[in-house]
Amino acid sequence: MTGESRRIARVLLDSPLPQLDRLFDYALPAEFGDVPLGVRVRVPLRTAGRVIDGYVVDIDTEDDADRALSEVDSIVSEVAVLPERLHRLARRVADRAAGSASDVLRLVIPKRQVRVEKAWTAESPVPVVDEDAAARAQEILDAYDGLAAVLDGSGRAAVEAIPQLRDGAEGWSLLLAAAAARLLASGKSSILIVPDHRDLDRLLTTLDGLVPGDAVVRYDSRQTNPDRYRGFLRTLEEAPCIVVGNRSAVYAPVQAGLVAIWDDGDPLLGEQLAPYVNARDAALLRQELEQSALLFAGHTRTTDVERLVAHGWLDDVRAARRVLPKVVLSTPQEMEQPAGQRMPSSAFLAARTAAAEGPVLVQVSRPGFSPSLVCAECRAPARCPHCGGPLGARHRGAVPVCGWCGRSAQAWACPFCSSTKLRLASSGSERTADELGRAFPGIRVIVADGAHPVERVDAKPALVVATRGAEPLAVGGYRAVVLLDGPRMLQAPDLRIGEACLRWWSNAAALAAPGAPIHLVGVSGAVGMALATWNQAGYARAELESRAPLHMPPTTRVALVEGSAAAVSRALIALGELALPSDAVLGPVPVESDDLPPRVRALVRFEYGAGSRVATVLRAAVVAEAVNGRRGKARNTKSTLTVRLDILDPEL
């Protein structure tokens, strides 16, 4: 030892390899001068002379010991894109999900845009909310019991959004905008998270009337790379702002005073990239770290949020004066009508009466004309002779087309009875519009689905046929709402299908004008009664009670372990040392794929208290398999073991 000292940088590598998910020490050359924490750097790897991107997480000084250290190759930028709070959040999220911190950071830190960076001054003025806007925000918040106290005290709450339109905006967007305006007026930033671009556009429009435009930062995948990077740089500044975006916005590096999520049951809030963390879970972890206010707002209550309410982790915030939509269920006589009669007489008459005054919403389950066909003789589902996919019709009299490979089936014959005749088995949005157009002559018919996006309709008479989630806003609200295909929706093989249907129907019902009838066709039982009484929280409580004996989520956490049979077996053996219950592991079972060696999967159920231990063991198993794979004679390019925690709908 020479007694001299040297500076070292602890660097988080931007790599998908699980074995590199830790901090590496590199020597900092003196010519680099002062290096800010969080900057991008280029550093060498010890293998193959490669240079890789990374972030400086810490800088320290050590005595010049014998250990050899590679030097930082270059400083990519002087901008600290990884503040400490963001690294801490990414590390916490990754550890809980048995994933890598770099995978989390890849969701939030955009690629560098040199021109944008050079033009950035980091000196945005502090936005000011004027007195009139502050008064409007306060009026909106006063409609909820105890909400202001939650915001001011950095509390946590599940908020039942008021299902009504006001000044052309939905109640939920007014709620989130008013909460963010209140925090902005006190000098704090907010993060508002919504499922899709339609919700984002509506929320941005609502914010435009309450806060200065330069205070709002948009955060979504539709932006160009320069705009996305420009918005990210704005969130690094000290001046408060309001971040509005989709699921990845939950990681925005502002010092948040509020994180709010709208409609947390929407599957779009579940991240599709590793480590597959739902925005709801990331928001909970962030609130734990930063002690910000946290709101989950919705017309319905997910079982995940209701579990937190039951444990006292979230306050239950309701409207001071509840506004209940007028929901009409089908009568017993109407429930016994033939399946081919989609709209009972009461719903038909309500739609006819309302359509003479303004727009009427008709919600259907599927887009297109007829998404599925069956044999006209034996009623067997019509399948493509090439790939086995379902056949459908694009319009009346059209040649059947496969929904998987897109091939036409002009000479189709039933493999069971040899019949060549087909029958329409279901009605999509276009077929429903065609049928209603003939039943309501003289009334315009508007189709709103993924292929025909419609954001808003006027107050003139119309029939709006929309798929779930694609319903446009109507000026003044819909004069009637008819919810079709309920029984079909509830037949989906999904643990949470009741929750999902209740969410789809509640969101559509919230678009109705005050006092307008909402007809739920063909549905009774607990889901129908929850909508009719507007008691979605009660339905969620009942669901939790029924799942608890079966150890189904969210009463317990569930991990999916998939890979080669040997890798999965080693991971399960390692888990066995945690003394989990005897019925914790389900499987393994084979996975249908062309991979060699064949893959299997298993489910692991565990209590929340064991979460950190299970995640640690599974992460260690993933790293061990990755290291062993690279040491083999033929290095595997595909991981032999993958892990995914918090599976919402476990299915082996």
Written overview of the protein:
The chain is α/β, with parallel strands linked by helices and 652 residues long. It is built from 19 helices and 30 strands. The strands form eight sheets. A seven-stranded parallel sheet has the order 10-11-9-12-13-6-14, sandwiched between helices. A six-stranded parallel sheet has the order 15-26-25-16-23-21, with helices on both faces. A hairpin with an 8-residue loop joins strand 18 (391-392) and strand 19 (401-402). The longest helix is centred in the last third of the chain and has 21 residues, at 611-631. The N and C termini lie far apart (58 Å).
Strand order of the largest sheet: 10-11-9-12-13-6-14
- What is the typical, i.e. mean, pLDDT? 90
Query: How many DSSP E strands?
Result: 30
- Count up the helices: 19
Question: Biggest sheet: strands, sense, closure?
Answer: 7 strands, parallel
Cα distance spanning the termini: 58 Å
Task: Tell me the structural class.
Answer: alpha/beta
Task: State which percent range the strand residues make up.
Answer: 15-25%
Work out the helicity level. 25-40%
Characteristic key phrases:
single chain, 652 residues, alpha/beta, seven-stranded parallel beta sheet, six-stranded parallel beta sheet, 23% strand
Short description, anyone?
The chain is α/β, with parallel strands linked by helices and 652 residues long. A seven-stranded parallel β-sheet has the order 10-11-9-12-13-6-14, with helices on both faces. It has a six-stranded parallel β-sheet with strand order 15-26-25-16-23-21, with helices on both faces. A five-stranded antiparallel β-sheet has the order 2-1-4-3-5, with no helix packed on it. Strand 12, helix 9 (279-290) and strand 13 (293-298) form a beta-alpha-beta unit.
